[in-house]
Amino acid sequence: xxxxxxxxxxxxxxxxxxxxxxxxxxxxxxxxxxxxxxxxxxxxxxxxxxxxxxxxxxxxxxxxxxxxxxxxxxxxxxxxxxxxxxxxxxxxxxxxxxxxxxxxxxxxxxxxxxxxxxxxxxxxxxxxxxxxxxxxxxxxxxxxxxxxxxxxxxxxxxxxxxxxxxxxxxxxxxxxxxxxxxxxxxxxxxxxxxxxxxxxxxxxxxxxxxxxxxxxxxxxxxxxxxxxxxxxxxxxxxxxxxxxxxxxxxxxxxxxxxxxxxxxxxxxxxxxxxxxxxxxxxxxxxxxxxxxxxxxxxxxxxxxxxxxxxxxxxxxxxxxxxxxxxxxxxxxxxxxxxxxxxxxxxxxxxxxxxxxxxxxxxxxxxxxxxxxxxxxxxxxxxxxxxxxxxxxxxxxxxxxxxxxxxxxxxxxxxxxxxxxxxxxxxxxxxxxxxxxxxxxxxxxxxxxxxxxxxxxxxxxxxxxxxxxxxxxxxxxxxxxxxxxxxxx
Length: 488
Ligand code: BES
Ligand code: MG
Ligand code: ZN
Description:
The protein is 34% helix and 20% strand. The protein has 488 residues and is an alpha/beta fold. Strands 7, 8, 9, 10, 11, 14, 15, 16 and 18 form a 9-stranded mixed beta sheet that branches.
């Protein structure tokens, strides 16, 4: 349970008080905290430098069992993310110590340059997300989430902080929903299961959900989506989620890649590239969780989710390299590589979203290319758009939530690379370079004149190893970002 608390720190009974400390600046106006910090800084091993740590046990004046001082370095170098990651790290350290109840000190507004609501939000996020553990498949649940995390602040009772707390919890719950779906093993999230799991989570919200089965998808003639699904025994689904609050005017459509397992198909992936491919539905998870979250937040915009869900498998019924298929939009596509399946399921969904919902804006999220990970690494998403304003607002939203996005170009002349000798277009580039760009250009052939952005989350969607406030597995990347963007 995450809560805000005010009062004198010495009187609070808790297993640990975590106190962030700067090297060169006071962060608190509370006298007790200040004198505690003075005492800590007298010790040789603690200066408030980054990663410094000092623990006092059973201090005579304090009701807390331990006081943990954590260095943050120079005040000029501190950002909101410093608080998010410090809190996440210390929540996990306290979990590892077997604690269940801690308190974290939040700086006084007069002592910091960053707006206090921004710091509070970061601390709340770090704590809530850092306390999430995906251990559904472990018999022995060795680590238990903390039961109580209090934030010590002078303004705990202020209405706006209480509403901030509720909002952060809601958005982080959405992030955790996405994380859990992504971390779920592929044998437990076949397209039908995953679609039903989303529908189940959405059923308590004001969202209309429809799940189209293979028959309906065939009737719609979504040849590209069907071609990807053809190799699997598990039939495809097209999940439609509609959030339409009263008096909303504008409509945003979100499309998310939902490949529950990407083996590569006939172009089978190798060991080393295939093990984590349960994460290839992270775009779908982020879109579905965002819809559920915006409904919980009660945003005043129409938001539509179009989520194609398939499994990409090799078999006697699978699509072959060389096949020519016909997309929902009518364009023919030569399959150059069955492992470039994401763009195939996306274009049929994008065309459908545009035709059916006529959105004012469309954003797709997809773990689309290894090339994007090559370009930007595992922590930064690539974004593509012809619309400068849309691209800028996504980058800005990502700076705020620390889901970093870097814009990459959509050069007209690179379209040459996805020409086909036999069909209208090819799903594989004739060059081995710039694969994130050619994938995005492929999508752009189907976006018509809709205001569109594509976010390639192949890098940040999944954490191979735990980091500050995310365990190993799905990161939930995109949920906080999209919520931030749609709030504006
Ligand atoms: N799902 C992968 C992309 C991916 C790679 C996601 C690494 C996460 C981490 C996608 O379907 C894929 O296989 N893309 C190919 C495209 C190529 C065949 C043109 C790739 O990136 O190698
Ligand atoms: Mg693939
Ligand atoms: Zn894929």
